[in-house]
Amino acid sequence: MPLPFDCRDGVLHVEDVPLPAIAAAVGTPTYVYSTAALRASARAFRAGLAAVPRKQLAFAVKANPNLAVLTLLAAEGYGADIVSAGEMLHALAAGMPARSLIFSGVGKTRRELAAALDAGIGQFNLELEEEGVVLAAMAAARGERAPAVLRVNPDVDAGTHAKISTGRKQNKFGVAIADAGAIYARLATLHGLDLRGIAIHIGSQLSDLGPLEAAYARIGRLVAELRAAGHAITHVDLGGGLGLAYRPEEVMPSPAAYGAMVARVTRDWDVTLLFEPGRFIAGDAGVLLTEVLWVKPGAVDPYVIVDAAMNDLARPALYDAYHDFVAVRPSGARMTANIAGPVCESGDTFAMGRDIDDVAAGDLAVFRTAGAYGATMASTYNCRALVPEVLVDGDRFALVADRITPAAMLAAQHLSPWMADEAA
Ligand code: LLP
């Protein structure tokens, strides 16, 4: 099978679709996802865990909540890790069984907890003792027991960007590992909870398995302590976090290497393991297609001004993230340039002084590895349209999320009644 993104006859394709055809039909900027790439990464992740006997795979919806993407992953046997009632709505709409949903998140509202109980989701990941008390009372009032695990903060530095690191003791997530035993014991007495294990997630875009292994080993010791205290531990949720190579020269741990580490560390645990991969599944399956508007002289290097901006792909502005920039019709020539969008902030800059394909106004180009934390983090800042999404499957493509226009957004705004009166 050809790579899902490759150059044929000098034109970049996604599977069998030339990107200029998508630009002509849908306009730019737009996200473009490959069905084949999504399936391949979903299968590679599962295959990497072949040595883990009992497991449940839950795609982290936050990485890409597009209905078509979730529907494909549901067909691959994935459930979902959700962090809001909105994500639950998307996962259920995609046909994921309620029992396959895991509700994570440090700020679940009572309304969201009730909606998740109504839906009958598979697991609540409790982030603090009080949340467990509230959930237990709500479930008991319905004559139910909510399936739950306690999220523990193992105090491990995941070695990733500070804004996507979650497992250090100063982070807001989980209960301190030193307090976990006592909290677990108190929550285990509540009739409204079916407390069955532990969850962790130490961060995202992890390039090194070392911190993950250290965190898992700590959880293994906690599981043994909890069992010694008489608790029946049947489930451990190992979170997500496996990183992707955003730069061509980067080397990341493979799902096979990750799976081998997991199998080794958890060999004696005798539990069902849950996994919440997001980036690994969707990241490489998407590009952001954009058109070069201008090439503008700069003090040092020229500015390539593209029609995509920080509101469409926020990662460079938020995390100084690198996204490879490739021309759709590369000539072979190179240039050193800054790449920036139209938004009125200096932070709306995708790259500075980067060696890229030579491009000119009117050319199409893509930002790669944009399928995860791309469209989902888009905004309408500067009254720009909400970026659309396209799915490719072989030689077919379809719009799977509309471009929400400024006119539609304006139609959702209203003058106050008194202003309308005064205007009449
Ligand atoms: N489980 C939990 C509880 C999480 O908080 C996350 C991500 C995941 C699973 C999925 O992690 P992954 O496999 O995708 O690394 N917007 C940032 C990433 C934020 C990740 C938040 N939590 C970015 O663009 O890099």
TrEMBL record:
Subunit structure: Homodimer.
Entry-linked InterPro entries: Ala_racemase/Decarboxylase_C (IPR009006), DAP_deCOOHase_LysA (IPR002986), De-COase2_C (IPR022643), De-COase2_N (IPR022644), De-COase2_pyr-phos_BS (IPR022653), Orn/DAP/Arg_de-COase (IPR000183), PLP-binding_barrel (IPR029066)
Positions of post-translational N6-(pyridoxal phosphate)lysine modification: K62
Keywords associated with the record: Amino-acid biosynthesis, Decarboxylase, Lyase, Lysine biosynthesis, Pyridoxal phosphate
Annotated Pfam families: Orn_Arg_deC_N, Orn_DAP_Arg_deC
EC numbers for this chain: 4.1.1.20
UniProt keyword Membrane present: no
Functional description taken from the UniProt entry: Specifically catalyzes the decarboxylation of meso-diaminopimelate (meso-DAP) to L-lysine.
Listed GO biological process terms: lysine biosynthetic process via diaminopimelate
Organism, as annotated: Sphingomonas glacialis
Name of this protein: Diaminopimelate decarboxylase
Gene3D superfamilies registered for this protein in UniProt: Alanine racemase, Lyase, Ornithine Decarboxylase, Chain A, domain 1
Residues reported in the UniProt entry to bind substrate: R279, R315, Y319, E345, Y373
Domain Orn/DAP/Arg decarboxylase 2 N-terminal: 43-282
Top-level EC class: lyase
Pathway, per record: Amino-acid biosynthesis; L-lysine biosynthesis via DAP pathway; L-lysine from DL-2,6-diaminopimelate: step 1/1
Lineage, opening ranks: Bacteria, Pseudomonadati, Pseudomonadota, Alphaproteobacteria, Sphingomonadales
Active-site residues per Swiss-Prot or TrEMBL entry: C344
